[in-house]
Design goal:
With 329 residues, the chain is of the alpha/beta class. Helices cover 53% and strands 8% of the residues. It has 15 helices and five strands. A five-stranded parallel sheet has the order 2-3-4-1-5, sandwiched between helices. Helix 7 crosses helix 8. The radius of gyration is 23 Å and the shape is elongated. The chain starts with 7 loop residues before the first helix and ends with a helix. The protein binds zinc ion. The site of zinc ion (ZN) has 8 residues, from helix 3.
């Protein structure tokens, strides 16, 4: 296990806390999805709990404490997450955490709690959690992880030290993706990274799960609608069976790229540099203000995703608008 290259500076920062013996009682780790926040936090857990950490601060991986961590049975490590993906973290979960924290840590070093995604604590849970921050438990470090810090109550945020993971340098990430044997072709790696909105771990997932092929198929359908070879309602019927993330982002990215093409942007700056030729072709004679209207519709759609929206209707609305836009060209 090594530190992900774009996280090295944050790792050094965490190690400094430990070396200087001033590990914060609550640390809020923020940053976009797919940057490795949980990975960084896990490594810090090993670092704090390992009996014989390595010189670079990482856990040794084979002492009795590390083995307990690997087996997820270390008594001084508590992980709080929703019982089901997307569900809230409940007051029941936080109450049982508070109960556990009234006991002393079992070993002589730290006790660590990770709450991820922290913004999923509902109001009652967040209020109860405040108590953990106001009355810190003995030798306890709480790591809150979120990509949506604005959804956390200010009362919690203000009581945490912050560590904000920034979007990494593209060159570092491209080099890392190549090391993972993602693709030998630079252009494809670049495309993956663009589709993953700059998140290296997401790009790696996309490379392994065939997302690029699916994206290409969907884009072909998008062209077919523009050329009136396929009917928007039929495509909507196919698309509503696909996971809306990342599909909604892909559609949005085509529209943004078409807008950029109207401004003669360089391929490097597009989300889909590999589709530049087709996107440029599509954007020709297209009214910029119509493209912006379509973009607005995508923003509204993204907000609607959290509601009980009928996906068939949602895609029909987008695709019919796209169809009409091309008719009036
Ligand atoms: Zn160890």
């Amino acid at each position: 296990m090594s530190v992900l290259p774009w996280l090295q500076q944050y790792w050094d920062h965490l190690c400094d806390y430990k070396i200087q013996n001033r590990v914060p009682q609550a640390l809020l780790i923020t940053g976009n999805k797919g940057l490795g926040k949980q990975h960084l936090a896990n490594q810090f857990v090993f670092s704090l709990l390992c009996a014989k950490p390595l010189d670079n601060g990482l856990g040794c991986g084979h002492c009795d404490r590390c083995l307990l961590l690997n087996a997820e049975t270390h008594p001084d490590f508590i992980q709080i997450r929703p019982d089901e993906p997307g569900k809230a973290i409940t007051i029941g979960q936080i109450r049982s955490l508070i109960n556990r924290l009234t006991l002393k840590p079992q070993f002589e070093s730290y006790r660590v709690v990770i709450i991820n995604p922290a913004e999923l604590m509902n109001n009652a849970a967040a209020n109860a959690f405040l108590k953990c921050l106001e009355e810190p438990a003995e030798r306890t470090v709480i790591l809150l992880i979120t990509d949506k810090p604005s959804r956390l109550p200010a009362t919690i945020v203000s009581r945490c030290q912050k560590l904000s993971v920034a979007k990494p340098d593209k060159e570092i990430v491209l080099a890392w993706l190549k090391q993972q044997n993602v693709e030998t072709l630079q252009s494809n790696v670049s495309t993956l990274l663009g589709l993953a909105q700059g998140s290296p771990l997401q790009a790696l997932d996309y490379a392994n799960d065939g997302s690029l092929t699916l994206r290409n198929d969907c884009f072909q359908a998008w062209i077919d609608i523009a050329k009136q070879r396929k009917h928007p309602v039929n495509i909507a019927e196919n698309w509503q069976k696909l996971p809306e993330s990342p599909l909604i982002f892909w559609i949005t990215s085509w529209i943004i790229d078409m807008i950029k093409c109207c401004y003669q942007t360089k391929a490097d700056w597009l989300y889909n540099p590999d589709l530049k030729k087709q996107l440029q072709e599509l954007s020709k004679q297209m009214e910029l203000k119509e493209l912006f209207k379509l973009y607005d519709l995508m923003l509204i759609t993204q907000q609607r995703l959290n509601t009980q929206i009928n996906k068939q209707t949602m895609y029909e609305e987008i695709l019919i608008k796209w169809f009409e836009l091309n008719l009036s060209k």
